[in-house]
Predict the structure.
Amino acid sequence: GQIVKLTDYRPTDFVLRGVDMTLRLFEGHADVVTILAFERREGAAADAPLCLDGDELILESIAVDGEILPPSRYEATPDALVVSELPESGGFEVRLETRIAPEENTKLMGLFRSNGIWCTQCEAEGFRRITYFPDRPDVLAPYKVRIEAEKAVAPVLLSNGNPVEAGELADGRHYAVWDDPFKKPSYLFAVVAGDLDALHDSFVTMSGRTVALGVYTEKGRAPQASYAMDALKRSMVWDERRFGREYDLDVFNVVAIADFNMGAMENKGLNVFNHKYVLLDQDIATDTDYAGVETVIAHEYFHNWTGNRITCRDWFQLCLKEGLTVYRDQEFSADEREPTVQRIASVRRLKAHQFPEDQGPLQHPVRPGEYREINNFYTATVYDKGAEVVRMIATLLGEADFRKGMDLYFERHDGDAATIEDFLACFEEAGGLDLSQFALWYAQAGTPTLTVSESWDPKERRHTVTLRQSLTQGAAGTGTEPMVLPVRFGLVGGNGEDRRAEGDVSGEARLKDDVIVLTGEEATITFTGLSDRPYLSVLRDFSAPVMLEHQQSEAERLALGRLDPNLFNRWRALDDLIAEALTSAARRPLGDEEPALKSAIVDALLASADDDELAPAFRAQALTLPGESDVARQLRENVDPDRVHEVVDAARVAIGAKGLALFERLSTGRPSAEPFSPDAESAGRRALANTALAYRCAATGDPAAAVAQYRAASNMTDRLGALAILAHRFAGEAACESALDDFYRRYENDDLVLDKWFALQATAPTYEAVETVERLANHPRFTMRNPNRVRTVFGSFAAGNQVAFHRPDGAGYRWVAEKLAALDRINPQIAARIATTFRAWRSFEPGRRAKLEETLRQLSEIKGLSKDLQDIVDRSRK
Ligand code: B3K
Ligand code: ZN
């Protein structure tokens, strides 16, 4: 495949003035007529041909200004249409006809059908599967779209913008016309047609305009969209209050679809969602599902300004919309829920997904410099590290100036296809500072290490803190210059309050309120005016995405775990101690029984779990041990996943045994009669109880408490919480089997719930899970056509089952590779995404490493692999 480079960017030779499309939908095919109004760009060569993108297209006809073109004037292939001898200046109109087959579109890019519903996905390069087009994000135009279909099959016809006309046609057909006055790139185009139910509501914007809201679902499921509708209205209010952003069209529609490659898509005025992020009620969805719906609804809605009104000049600028919009949805969730708990969840996510990516062969900077397949760059680095970079800008500027910078960005770039440079310039102006060194965060890949050491001078009552940063050159080879690290900190006294102290900086850093901004390799801050030695609480709220090495004693960390007024750091003090203890225990050989956690650490953990002053959600987070893959990442090399599992599980049993009385108390006698509410506080109480139940069963080795909760559960959170314990800790036992059977019978008609049944079995930490997933893949309800189903079987097995996927005989690797090779022919995007789990091959012990390497080699040699999968496999082998 061709490599696309950021440095090769140049504007198109033709400016697009408008798009007028007609889609005629039939059983088996769709006819697409596209009229494009172009103008040769000033300064473009007079003989430059018009080059349009295509993908698996067949051209039916082409006319320019009403004249059918002779074959000598153009060249059409499935991937491109080149038209020559066009007017040397001024405007002209190109009319194109293509015929496509949505039913055969298993890649789910472009126009496809999901359970009979016609639906589109165009980001990044799907529009070119519908019509030939300059399919790149810097080509912006207003669109007018007419859809025609049989009325009985598709009574609902939706597109972007506002509805302007609708009516009847012959033969039981009808049509609707939509007009989107806001100029947009083609990746935001959408059409939906089908027999859909809807939930309707309205919203009055801050300037008093009424917007009609609709959430469309498959037949009979509209009531399950009410939480999504509620989340949408809360998002609209929040964006007005927090960022002054008002919605712009007369309608805003959301459609929930069963077969969808991603979570959702922010098409202008017509967001299309994986139905997993829309449909729920207490019987089918967990609290985590509720939080997911809230976040994704908010995220897509927020794109209306950060992504749609201001879009990206090219795909290298993807983080301009994604990192910023993730930052916005994180802030929304923090405001709607519990800020510390939200921040803990985001940091866990970053460490679990982005850190390994940034430290392995698929490493790339937040703004990549080149790509072969852009769909492989919708990554944790672009999204989550991209959000961290925006968060650092907010930290550096402070709340007021950050808002000023955002206002300036919206004002200056509304209607533009912008770049990271445009974005940064707004904050330089608003904050009166130079962000040129800061911009390295977009260019240099890798996770910096921040080393902190301190010393107390009792005579002078001086505390000296030394900060050092370093970055190793990784696969991306993008350099190791010192970055700008904002390090939020506090000096905590024995009473649990932050001390005030004067700070004197030497070296390349500056001190601004409670933030040390480290700009050089090393700096030292000397704090004076202290009466006794403080506890240094550093990198509060994870103010920079770095690996922290703080040379601090266990006693000090335990004290911070008890006292730190910054709750995030209170959590992290213990979490880091635990992670380090598990990691060093995992270095000892399989079977070694020396406890990983000292009793002081276990006691501290139990003390926070028992602290009624703390929010239950926080206590549940505190009790959640680092995952097996986190421990594996910290080991860095020679990883034996069986040993990691053994260590983490033994720690869980030990904690459960020591805190048994507490866990019994927390997991029983809950007000089960209390009516269900999905709010964060109630969810937190359920999370704490379910976490306690898991510890209790770990300690007793008895499934009875989980069986009892499974049976008595009045909501999915409690039912699935119990089932997860049975499926993972008691896999293969009668209690587990009968609960799984019961669950299947209860929910076999609901694919969303069935996904949970598939996923739990695929992640059971036993060698037999390899045979289980093979059985699941042959289950009548398994299909490679549904991305959710594929993700819950192949994806959760490969990424979430360290024991079985890494079975020492290599059976897990072979199984996944074989399935991916088959999936690649149906849906390459999903195959490529799941294949990323192979990237960690170098970190394993020699036996597994050799088998992983061999599996990757075999995959790479398969003939006719998609560009998507080939790209991931080739880069992973580097
Ligand atoms: N922008 C889409 C993702 C598109 C992925 C294309 N492979 C959803 C989102 O980030 O909001
Ligand atoms: Zn997004």
Summary: The chain is about 40% helix and 25% strand. The longest strand covers residues 515-528. The radius of gyration is 28 Å.
